[in-house]
Amino acid sequence: MRLLLAEDDALLGANVQQALKAAGYASDWFQQGNEARVQGSLEPYDVAILDLGLPGLSGLQILQAWRAEGLSMPVIVLTARSSWQEKVEAFNLGADDYVTKPFHIEELLARISAVHKRSIGLVSGDLAMEGLRLDEHTQTVWQGAESYALTGTEFRLLRYLMLHPGQILSKSELTEHVYAYDADKDSNVIEVYVNRLRQKIGVDKIQTRRGQGYVFGNAAAESHSS
């Protein structure tokens, strides 16, 4: 899962990005409002964390611009301001959640998970399907009584696949959602990590659609794995 973080406080931004990485998220951090607005429009983010007090463009201006463009990615507003009028304005402009500084990083992580799951129609708190249960706290996947530790990339890839069961996901789409903006992206590496996951969870869980991409789950049982 790939996140946009817009925060002009250098220390807070660095701490949040570090926590996001530890939680298994790929994130891009922007400190200028104009840059955050443009990148949010150009890149396929799953969730945006948006500070209201940004230089250049305010968080509310950015949110308004994104929604006017038809962007529907979940947005969590992050601010030191606590007036109820500002909260109402943020929600009216299309914010999905609101976190007031100071905050515990665990709360922010929980809200990120919650708004993303709601956005894709997943109401259960557990990410479990096809006999697998993905523990997002330990980045471990369980299959019955067996557990398998995942690397950061394996975890992000499997989580994205499990959040989109039955959908054909191209290598390029997986690459965009698994790696951060400034990472060295190579879509061919996705095949390597898919094969590593298959060695841990079974070859039948991730199917290959030749020339199209990959599908997680029984909805693709008629396709053949590579």
The CATH class of the largest domain, by name, is Alpha Beta
Shape: elongated
User: Could you state the order of secondary-structure elements as H and E?
Assistant: EHEHEHEHEHEEEEHHHEE
Rg, rounded, reads 18 Å
Low-confidence stretches: 220-226
Total tally of structural domains:
2
- Residue share in helix: 40-55%
What would you call the structural class?
alpha/beta
Strand share of the residues? 15-25%
Average pLDDT taken over every residue: 87
Record field, number of beta strands:
11
Biggest sheet details:
5 strands, parallel
Topology (SSEs and partners):
Elements: E1 2-6, H1 10-22, E2 26-30, H2 33-42, E3 47-51, H3 59-68, E4 75-79, H4 84-92, E5 97-100, H5 105-119, E6 127-129, E7 132-135, E8 140-143, E9 146-149, H6 152-163, H7 171-178, H8 188-201, E10 206-209, E11 213-216
Parallel strand pairs: 1-2, 1-3, 3-4, 4-5
Antiparallel strand pairs: 6-7, 7-8, 8-9, 10-11
Helix pairs in contact: 2-3, 6-8
Salient structural properties:
226 residues, alpha/beta, Rossmann fold, Arc Repressor Mutant, subunit A, 2 domains, 5-stranded parallel beta sheet, 4-stranded antiparallel beta sheet, 21% strand, elongated
Explain what you see.
- Helix 2 packs parallel to helix 3 and helix 6 packs across helix 8.
- Helix content is 40%, strand content 21%.
- The protein starts with a strand and ends in a 10-residue tail after the last strand.
- It contains eight helices and eleven strands.
- By secondary structure, it is α/β, with parallel strands linked by helices.
- It is elongated.
- The C terminus is likely disordered.
- It folds into two domains: 118 residues, 3-Layer(aba) Sandwich (Rossmann fold), CATH 3.40.50; 94 residues, Arc Repressor Mutant, subunit A (Orthogonal Bundle).
